[in-house]
Amino acid sequence: MTALLAPNKNQSANMAKMAGRLQAHLTKSFVALTVLLRSPFKEDTTPKQTGGVNELVSNTLTFLSYVIGYKDLLVSLFLSMGDGHWNQGVSQQSPHVSHHASDPSDGLSIFQHYLRDVIDALSFTIDQGGKHMKRPALQFVFLINNHSYLARALRDTMYAGDDESQSVGLGDLVGRSALLRIESQIERSRKGYIATWKALMSSFPASSLAPAEKLSMFNQGLDDMMRVQRSYDLFDADVRAMLISDATDAIVPNYEMFLRQNPDKSPEFARAMKYTPRDLQRRIKGMLDD
Question: Mean pLDDT in the chain?
Fold first, then answer.
């Protein structure tokens, strides 16, 4: 009997050692991800000047989908590693660190705390990426596009657990409050994007300029803006429609008002009259086309 039990004891000891090593590696991985997201960009890893979805954003969400696939195995490891272990060395006053799990004695609650912190840190990563954009409009496009990508990932995996054939998704685990925070950031960025369009009409109120001069300045600014828009990497149809709608609402009504208030028939004004309101609306509608 002793001979039979001896291998089992050795096997148990080996399994315990393997579990210990696995836990150590997992802890390092979870910590490394949050550290990366809080200091995401170096000189050689700055995001491209295209406004596209950053690889760090898409890769992190892919990683989380894999992690969630092993949720039932990981919750016990998270319980043994302790709540907030991934925030080692990070100030609890950091804006992208939630304070604690709803139940620090429950592995699933700790796992959800980790996911919320990663989503908040990922939103911070997007904000930092926006600061690397060299044009104001591009900054807001980057923020809108990447936050929309993140919001869609949460929205599409919310209520997944309602169907018994589906597993619980990322959106379910982090909760609706995380989605609402992301959506509010999108709305703030949209306001900034709209402001960049309205800035094209900054010459309209100037009393020192003739109407034809104001129109020429507007045309030059609009043409420059249109050239930049074509360089954006925007594959989400909803984001494209949002940007087109915001640009149209920012420009067309004010442009129409300017023309009504300046019924100038001079040759100079006629030469400067490059766009009718309908032309302007049509050009904005196609501004993101290749």
Answer: 86
